[in-house]
Amino acid sequence: MPAQAHADRLFIGSKRYSSWSLRGWLAVRLAELEVEEVVIALEETPSAAIRAATPTGLVPYLEHRGVRVWETIAIAEYCAEQAPGLWPEDAALRAQARSISAEMHAGFRGLRQAMPMNLGREFPGGGRTPEALADIARIEAVWREALAASGGPFLGGAAFGLVDAMYAPVVTRFMTYDVHLDRTCAAYCKRIAELPAMQEWIKAARQEPEEIDELDAEF
Ligand SMILES: N[C@@H](CCC(=O)N[C@@H](CS)C(=O)NCC(=O)O)C(=O)O
Question: What's the pLDDT score for residue 44?
């Protein structure tokens, strides 16, 4: 019997705006999955094109070797199963990395609403709502704690991993909105922003058209 044909694809939104897509894309990169990248422009919200292509009407969405995975945290876990070492090896550090990744996945709505990802523009001083500032304080505390526990220079230890991928769009928001951070967190942001994969994503994002800058979108 011939092997079942299946497409290996990662569906993502515009690189300029889609923070969840960046997380999923980094996870797939970390696991070195060979997938076709399908970018669906976020021209409207909700997006009919994304709804037609994915089970939940949201990106990222991964199809890999006949397996379908959605929700960024589930994609991260799938990637961790494909490639060892994407979570810290030490059980306590791994628990911490998973906890703060889940905290990112479930929360920080104040930050996400007030400072949506936009890699094409800069809004220095923007988005300082009380809720966003409270989230920023919590994120700084979380980062400091993780870097101290793991020894850095990444949140889970020596290598860039899934926990860093979960916070990568927070790094770009801090840059876009020029958020003042303590020295440890500022250095961590610089480290993440300079990673080749991040540079590649940001470069591609800047080449995309401004689709939804006028929309009040929270991605
Ligand atoms: N909980 C989802 C959130 C994904 C999400 O909100 N994706 C946005 C783009 S960053 C989206 O697909 N929006 C489509 C729309 O608003 O129509 C996850 O973790 O993957």
Answer: 80
Ligand 1 close to Cβ of residue 201 (< 6 A):
no
pTM tops 0.85, yes or no: yes
Cβ(118) – ligand 1 distance below 6 Å: no
Q: Is 12 in the pocket of ligand 1 (CB under 6 A)?
A: no
The CA 85 to ligand 1 mean position distance, Å, reads: 27
Cβ atoms of residues 195 and 90 within 8 Å: no
**How does 203-214 read in b/e, with b if 16+ C-beta sit within 10 Å?**
eebeebeebbee
Which atom of ligand 1 is nearest the CA belonging to 70? Answer: 20
Contact call for residues 170 and 103 (beta carbons, < 8 A)? no
Mean pLDDT in runs of 10 for the chain (219 residues)?
Answer: 73 96 98 97 88 96 97 98 97 98 97 95 95 98 98 98 98 98 98 98 92 57
| Gap from CA of 40 to ligand 1 centroid (Å) | 12
- Write down the pLDDT at residue 196: 98
pLDDT given at position 1: 42
Strand, coil or helix: 81: helix
- d(CA 91, CA 97) in angstroms, rounded, equals 10
- 37 forms beta bridges with 10
Q: From CA 97, how far away is CA 16, in angstroms rounded?
A: 26
Within its chain, how far is the Cα of 64 from the centroid?
Answer: 19
